[in-house]
Amino acid sequence: MTPLQAATRETFWTIGPVGKAAFYWLAAVAILVFCYGVYARFAAYARGSEDPRDRLSNLPARTVAATKTVLSNENQFDRDLYAGVMHTFVLWGFLTLLVATTILGFDIDVYRPLAGESFWVGDFYVAYQFVVDAFGLLFVVGVGMAMYRRYRDRDGRLWGKHTSLEDDAFVWTLFLLGVGGFVVQALGIVGQPARADETVSFVGMAMAAGFRWAGLTPGGAEAIYGVVWWSHSLLAFAFIAWIPYAKPFHMISSFANVVARDEKAGARLPNVPADLDHTNAESLEDFTWKELMDGDACTKCGRCSSACPAETVGRNLDPRDVILDLKAYRESVSDDPVAGAGGGGEVATDGGTAAIDGGVAGSAAASDGGTVPIVADEGGVIASESMESCMSCLACMDACPVDIEHLTSFTKLNRQLVDEGAVDSNLQDVFQDVMQKGNTFGESQSTRGDWIDELDGGVEVPDARETEVEYLWYVGDYPSFDDRNKTVARALARLFDEADVSFGILFDDEKTDGNDIRRIGEEFLYLELAGHHVETFADCEFDSIVCTDPHSYNTIKNEYPEVDFAEFADDPMMPFDREEPWNAEGEIDVFHWTQVVEELVADGRLGLSGDELDYTVTYHDPCHLGRYNDEYEAPRELIAATGADLHEMPRSREDSFCCGGGGGGLWTEHDEDVKPSEERLREAVEDTDAGAAIEKFVVACPMCTTMFEDGRKTGNFEDGVEIVDVAELLIEAVEAGSEKAGSAEARS
Length: 748
Description:
This protein is mainly α. The chain contains 27 helices and twelve strands.
């Protein structure tokens, strides 16, 4: 029996010097092929257009943050415990085995020749073997969990038109590598009786016991060891060399993607330069290096597809397919020996409908990225219908564990459609209304403030152009022109008045904010609106801006400060005289009204005691307030302040299901059995703990109010639940509190 202090094993047992030399030669070839592949991949990204964001600023901090994100698997654990555990086992098992192999290689090839001895002995060897066995077992279990979900459960989100033999090869190779390592270890234990008491190798010992039970002798183990050892080694070398050329490359590209992420991606879209040639998606050359890397970073996990409300209700959009369709097309027309198919492949892609029927011959591709249009009604890589289906809700990006920025690519595709005039006729009408009237309703701007006429209680709304105020209130299109949402504006005005807030509005100098106009693809109309507003802001005296609509809040807060007005100083299409950025340093605070009023309530300025109302309610998180800007608590605090009993829907906060109004959805019609708003209302009254007891469906977005009022009618929910804005709930609570106080005073 070998004493533990002296314990070690022969790495190249039965292999011999010729085999050892062949091993090192093959290892060198595999590493060289790997390194070339990685270089070629990143060189291909560099041929993409320049990204408007500085993705590599403060690179050390970015790398540290990405390392934490990846090693903790926090994105994988988000929403899916099973996937989090599975990925943790695989990742940490793989990394531990990689580090262990590196340590052993250093001992054999560096330390032993220099020191004349080995450190891979004794206590270190014992600890090493235990750790390798423990993490190797976790690795195999993790891969087994992946295989179970893929092949036994057949989780639908793991399968799609881009699922291929490559995916099977990847998971089976990992499994065979993990199991094969233990088989090699077990054969070595059986064939070397001196290692019979090496109990720290508990997996290898257990497998060795099984082999002995099956009748394997030390001589038999020695006879087959070389074959199994070489099989395992060759598979490992093949896998290493294969990594940059197929799906395994996501192990590298996804980390790089997290490093290069934009924390506000989606909430602030990349600015378009004055040169129109770089605005759209006319060819593959128009995509930035980050957008190209997004395709390679995709793991095909399908989380974005599962989260997408358009996909859920049956619209022609699968965000995963759009990203992978673009990647597939790029590879089909590329002559790159690594990232392409040499121009000889075929691809049938569209984001959901096979716009390219029968495929696209790569041999027909032109040097500019191919003869096939990137996005089109027919014959394009991506079907225009897919882009029209997008609600810009950001659910896909929020769900993505590797920080793919779907919305930046989608907006680029929409810009191309707008540039070609290939957008829905209803959207064309909206563009015309905004250009001619300044609002999406096509109403005269002179009537923008008419909602004030029906304000109760003698509330006055000052003109912020003439009076210095604390808050410049950007009311928004729907609270200004839509009858249903005018009640929200009036409720909020009364709340401000009740709390003695100094506020004012812009009346006819307020135009539509441009948030959704931009996401539809009308970039230059958005720029005109941004220029108009920041010039108007400059002529007013105020401390902060407060917005009724989360869409307005998002674009004024996150996107107006990004506009480089100097780029358009000489453009006759831009009727503003401004060259410097607006609010670039954040000196002006921009709020959603719930954030302001939540502070007022906390300060006791609305006189609420928290027991004024006794409704059973649920709350819908607007996409532009929640996912876009991470504000989830202020509306809930206000609901709680009224005394209402809040019951959360299963999909709430960052998991909230879009109403369907974003990305132009408010102005378009779609052929679908169930509208997103109907599905959301169904969830409220069927899946929420309170169920049918829900009396009020509370929102904090005028567009959401509009969509849910429509869904309430079309989905037959009119008798079951009422749609109310948080402001309407609050003013009702304030009135109830005043009545209580009045009654108490009368009794005294």
